[in-house]
Amino acid sequence: MRGRDFIIITLFDTMNLSDTAAWAAEYGLNHPVIIDPLGEIAGRFEENQAVPSYTLILPGAEVAFRDHSIISVEDIEPYL
Questions:
Q1: What is the pLDDT of residue 3?
Q2: Count of domains forming the chain
Q3: Measured by CB atoms within 10 angstroms of the end CB, which terminus of the chain is less buried, N or C?
Q4: How big is the chain by its Cα radius of gyration, in Å?
Q5: By residue range, what is the domain housing residue 56?
């Protein structure tokens, strides 16, 4: 998917800043990690906030799919 406009964002609802930074460093993340303790951001796009999931949000905040446990290149490709 090189050369395509795409961004990954990770939301956490329970971690504090230092724990989140440590987790991101441990896994070598190089994308934004946002702390969302009240679920305000996730609540706009997710139906099931109780488990880790992936949601694909298109430009204009349109949700292509939500609450997937795994997203593959094949899932994303049609939207790029």
A1: 54
A2: 1
A3: N
A4: 13
A5: 10-79
Structural domain contains residue 17: yes
Q: What is the pTM of this model?
A: 0.65
Predicted pLDDT at 62 = 83
**Average pLDDT of the residues of the chain:** 80
Identify whether 3 is part of a domain: no
- Residue entry with tokens 């795994």: 70
SS3 category, 71: coil
> Tokens in use for 70?
């795994």
Q: Is residue 5 a part of any domain in this protein?
A: no
Spell out a b/e string for 38-55, using b for 16 or more CB atoms within 10 Å of the CB, else e: eeeebeeebeeeeeebeb
Structural domain contains residue 4: no
User: Cα separations (Å) of 67 from 2, 23, 25, 42, 77?
Assistant: 25, 22, 25, 11, 18
Query: What is the predicted pLDDT for the residue at 4?
Result: 60
